[in-house]
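Researcher: Checking consistency across runs. Here is C4-dicarboxylate ABC transporter substrate-binding protein again:
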Amino acid sequence: MMALFRFRPVALTAAGLLLIAGLVLSAVYFWSPQATLRITTGLPGSAAHRFVGSFAKVLTGQHPRVRFDFFPVGSLVDSAQAMESGKVDLALVRSDVSPPTNGRTIAIMRRDVVAIFLPDGSPIDDVSKLAGKTVAIPQGPTQDNNSRALDAILSYFDIAPDKVKRVFLPIDEIGPAVHRKHASAALAVGPIGPGDAVNVAASIFRATKAAPDLLAIDQADAIVKRFPGFESIDVPEGAFKGKPPTPDDSTTCLAVTYRLVVPETMLNVVAGLIGRAVLNTKEKLMAADPLATQIETPDADDTSPVLPIHPGFSAYLSSGDQSLLDSLQQYLYVIGIPASLLGSLGALGWSRWRNRKLMDVEQQAYQLLVIADAARRADTVELERLEDELDELIRNCVNHMTAGTADVSQAPITTLAIDHARRAIERRRKDLAATPPPQSPGITEEAPPIPS
């Protein structure tokens, strides 16, 4: 029992060391200066590919211990699927193109207007009047995505997609196609600024010698409720052409957004740090890629179910760096408790195992003392049995020592008990050898004959 009480400080020390180790490992995990982020890239030569390259270059320049693993994808759909399947940590996706259900927004990289341009004087003044017409769409990597965006808009007006013909043309040919009546309208998805929408408006102006009109979608808010990948946007006068202006007045349209997203399972502190890095490097990004001028901070109060803001970045936007410290403390607390419990359980298990070894030593010593005590009264046959039992105990002790399952610190006690038992057996054997065997009853020793 005294050995057990003496052992308790050792167990408590072990538990404390395990708890400290758990906290140290947690700190190393969260404050590790190394980080590798897997990010999707678009097709070589595409705007997405150029932007991701610039983004990675600027961010690694600011944070040399951050590195990127590029994950090439062939389309916006592939990028969304890579995020959905957990193959990447960052992805550039479009809000209306198969948005990943597990995606959470870190930054809005660009907001593109879904612009439907009409030649000056066109009788089309509502989306429903596109039925039976031909719409020209710029050729390019996103032409199918843009065509499906038109399908969604048409479906709101109960117009089947096959009722509106599409022709995919280089931007420079869209203006002439509209001028020759080969297309009644042109659809371009692009930002308010350099991009497809501005270029299509310019192409129509050059061919028709008149500023094109922008078709208003007064039902934009209702369409957004049905298709939350869209947004309602008021396009200001002259957004796509200055003089004469296109549009000639503020016009309600639909828009889609390109977003940098992370998985919803990403730790809040990591998401917050990534968002913080994007905001802090925006000026350098603008110098490296003009697209960075359109980077926006997502609205923390946005209730859209499609690609909501990551809670870690939302906390950073509302509380700044303090939110990151709070997240670190929370994670340390959450991990510290299990680490403490595991340390305590480990110490308890080790203590029980150690106590079991001590009990085995005490049991062996007790058996050896029993053998020594029994040897004092044993006859020759019993003594042989006791010696065999002693040999078996010695064999077990040696096997435990060889296997490392014996408590080496208790070896002197076992050795002393073995020596005591062996001496008792040897003394008893000498005593039995010195004592003549008893005679059988009724047998008398004959007197030697008397010599004659």
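Researcher: Does this match what you'd expect to see?
Model: One thing to look at in this run: Strands lie at 35-41, 66-72, 91-94, 103-118, 134-138, 165-169, 185-191, 213-214, 231-235, 251-263.
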